[in-house]
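Usage example:
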Amino acid sequence: EAGVAQSPRYKIIEKRQSVAFWCNPISGHATLYWYQQILGQGPKLLIQFQNNGVVDDSQLPKDRFSAERLKGVDSTLKIQPAKLEDSAVYLCASSLISGGTYNEQFFGPGTRLTVL
Amino acid sequence: AQTVTQSQPEMSVQEAETVTLSCTYDTSESDYYLFWYKQPPSRQMILVIRQEAYKQQNATENRFSVNFQKAAKSFSLKISDSQLGDAAMYFCAYRTSRGYSTLTFGKGTMLLVSP
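Running the assembly step on the lines above writes:
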């Protein structure tokens, strides 16, 4: 079974530029998560989708970050414009469903973003 | 809000020895899950072990076991017979059992394994 795919693996941009990350979850997984992991810290949830609807985006900086999950499968996360403090690893994860019943989250390899 | 605290930024162990990583958490919930995740240098996060709060028995997965103290809100991970491949960042994480909840992570503990 294929795992969570992410691209690109690495990205270097200048501040104020735009960048987009792509995630393809495990087939059949209804729930998709985007996390931001700053160096030396644990991952922090940015946004959670259930199919193509947003369940939780309370920690997403909406003035510069946006995310979509068209057709309830692939997802893109965009930053426009980027700031120095956005330098981090962006992790995508997916699970069968999210709710009271536990379903394991499977993580992708992440995209390392460096903002200069 | 729930918080997860890992007070050991780095731990060292020799091959074949045993090491314990500490984690404490704060919650007002009575039903939740606790996890230990491993993140090797390649960055892919892997689930190591899971504990349901309603279970009194400590979870075990091969060389990995936990010491879950619900009243103390403590959740430590013991790695027995350490191997070079165990070297990684280890994250403790919490998830309530309610609704569309997600994971709250600690800051992690880097485990170094020497031959």
